[in-house]
Design a protein that fits this description.
Blueprint lengths: L2 E3 L17 H23 L5 E3 L6 E3 H17 L4 E4 H5 L4 E3 L4 E8 L1 H5 L6 E8 L2 E9 L4 E6 L3 E4 L2 E2 L12 E3 L7 H17 L3 E3 L4 H9 L5 E5 L3 H13 L3 E3 L12 E5 L2 H8 L11
Parallel strand pairs: 1-5, 4-6, 12-13, 12-14
Antiparallel strand pairs: 2-3, 6-7, 7-8, 8-9, 9-10, 10-11, 14-16, 15-16
Amino acid sequence: MACHINAHASFNKDINMGSDYNIEEFIKTAEELAREAGVLVRDAYKKDKAVESKSCAVDLVTETDTKVEELLISRLRKKYPTHKFIGEESTVSGEPCLWTDDPTWIIDPVDGTMNFVHSFPFVGICIGLSIKKEIVGGVVYNPIYDEMFQAIKGKGAFCNNKPIKVSSQNDLKLSLFITEVGFNSQEMLDVKVANYKSLLEAGIRGFRSLGSAALNMCHIARGSAELYYEYGIHCWDMAAASIIVTEAGGVVMDTTGGPLDIMNRRCVAASSGSLVKEFTKHVKHLQLQRD
């Protein structure tokens, strides 16, 4: 399931990224497709679901995940035949996962599959766009609550067309944190428990968990909490949401406090870099196999 970065990919003639690409039109298309895919998710949301496991018993996939990804990729490929794709379900099924300088759509068809299976209403359809390995636009749509989060580089972040901003709170002791409680190894469990204890002893106000990495990040972007961190997620979990956070005035970084690498399977999204700096003083880190 590893994604590979092609350092020798051919460059578009536009070195400055924007002038040869109509990014606003690309993201408008992504929004329209996310809403169309949302109909599939809502229709299946309250019904019995055929569920299979992937890497472990809590890593789930449903028929809806597959249908949504097929819809998104087929429609985007038809409209943009030269673009490339990284999709969660197609990658898990064995398709090559190659991240190049070409325009690349990074897709999680149902972020929060466990939530979807249990009809817990935090489910995200995630469509991120990278050009020259930089995320330039993203859409995260929760079809259950009909919330469309969207951002384009340099244009701000929005929820249902209304501007959103991160919290102005930078004091760790006055901050609400978001993280997830799942784990896939004893080492991950031990590190997570140690970090919970350390951060609570440091005085944060508490933890919340929505069950969707992308929606966790979007709630940082809208100012509902101050910091989200996670280990073990994938590029499709964070690509679209990462630009929503940064365009809302926040930061998205590696959990060590360094620059974000979406293939590195860990991230922290926060209202400010200073809060991330304080966070890093209180946590242990996990080194994970790259995407």
